[in-house]
Amino acid sequence: MLEKLCNLVKSCHKAVVLTGAGISAESGVPTFRGKEGLWGRFRAEELATMEAFMANPKIVWEWYNWRRELMGGVKPNPGHLALVELANHFGSFTLVTQNVDGLHRAAGSTEVLELHGNINRNKCVKCSAPYEESDIDPDRIPKCSRCGGQIRPDVVWFGEMLPGEVIDTAFRRSEEAELFFSIGTSAIVHPAASLPITAKHCGATLVEINPEETPLSGLADIRIAERSGEFLPRLLEAIRSGIGSGEKG
Ligand code: BJW
Ligand code: ZN
């Protein structure tokens, strides 16, 4: 399996990686779903919505402040770091993440397509104007200086559109990809979960790295039932040591 993957890395020019919460799990960031998937007492579907914010902005802000604090204290893990080096093995490498934790950039990945925003940014709930002050007191939620709307985290909630240019680029690169890695995602939240399906339909070899099966597993050409922070450094080591015989055509 490792040799097959090394050959693919050596022979493919265009790669796309889609990551989800699982790649940050080994940094100590809880996932949303699954056995370890507990963001406190709440599920993303209950708090990551405009309805929840409108009904109880204080609870939503308390949840985000708590997560910001947790994410502020974690570091990239060997999985994030391995992806920085993996990028160097392709002519075109696109890193797409559903994560809002910023750990890919912290690891050193330069071009990262953040599909669901970034937890450290804020914006106006009405006009989307950015709000620079990062600390938010849930008992005194600030108002937008332009329109008076309440300030919210700059992330994508259920029922909201993803940033247009970001998702368009992600689809375009997925259509062109020869090799697509789906890493640490339950692959149930769309449109992100459509990216690997699109890539596969357009001819890419699909690799899934996830200890648990997902709706994508049946479609994957190669399934690695391991933690990304353990498998990805091993893959890099195998590539470095010259395992596999593929050559870029
Ligand atoms: C490891 C590991 C280790 C553990 N190593 N792995 C088409 C079909 C059906 C529904 C829809 C559809 N199109 C749109 C929808 C509706 C909806 C949707 O998808 N719902 C589904 C739940 C069914 N999508 C939307 O609403 C999206 N907007 C949209 O489509 O707009 C257009 C539109 C509008 C109105 C109507 C119709 C269309 C927006 C989605 C926004 C998602 N937002 C969140 C919150 C972000 C902000 C925040 O963080 O607070 O994004 S929800 C949450 O889920 C978060 C994540 O990015 C996202 C995905 O989760 P992820 O990353 O996969 O995490 P987990 O926990 O689910 O999985 C972790 C995995 O890691 C597990 O599999 C583990 O096994 C694994 N793992 N340790 C490797 N060490
Ligand atoms: Zn505003």
Structure summarized in a few sentences:
The protein is α/β, with parallel strands linked by helices and 249 residues long. Helix content is 35%, strand content 17%. Strand 7 (179-183), helix 9 (194-201) and strand 8 (205-209) form a beta-alpha-beta unit.
Distance between the termini: 22 Å
Overall shape: it is elongated
Q: Rounded to an integer, what's the Rg over CA atoms?
A: 19 Å
Strand neighbour order, sheet with most strands = 3-2-1-7-8-9
Report the bound ligands by name, code or SMILES: ligand BJW, zinc ion
Any idea what the CATH superfamily of the largest domain is called?
TPP-binding domain
By helix and strand content, what is the structural category? alpha/beta
Biggest sheet, in brief? 6 strands, parallel
Average the pLDDT over all residues and give the rounded result.
Answer: 94
How many separate helices? 10
Q: What is the CATH architecture descriptor of the largest domain?
A: 3-Layer(aba) Sandwich
User: Using DSSP, what is the number of strands?
Assistant: 9
Low-pLDDT residue spans:
none
Helices and strands, in N-to-C order?
HEHHHHHEHEEEEHEHEEH
Name of the CATH class of the largest domain = Alpha Beta
Name a few traits of the molecule:
alpha/beta; Rossmann fold; SIR2/SIRT2 'Small Domain'; three-stranded antiparallel sheet; binds ligand BJW; binds zinc ion
List the helices and strands and how they pair.
Layout: H1 2-11, E1 14-19, H2 22-25, H3 44-47, H4 50-55, H5 57-72, H6 78-86, E2 92-97, H7 103-107, E3 112-114, E4 117-124, E5 130-131, E6 151-155, H8 164-176, E7 179-183, H9 194-201, E8 205-209, E9 222-224, H10 228-240
Parallel strand pairs: 1-2, 1-7, 2-3, 7-8, 8-9
Antiparallel strand pairs: 4-5, 4-6
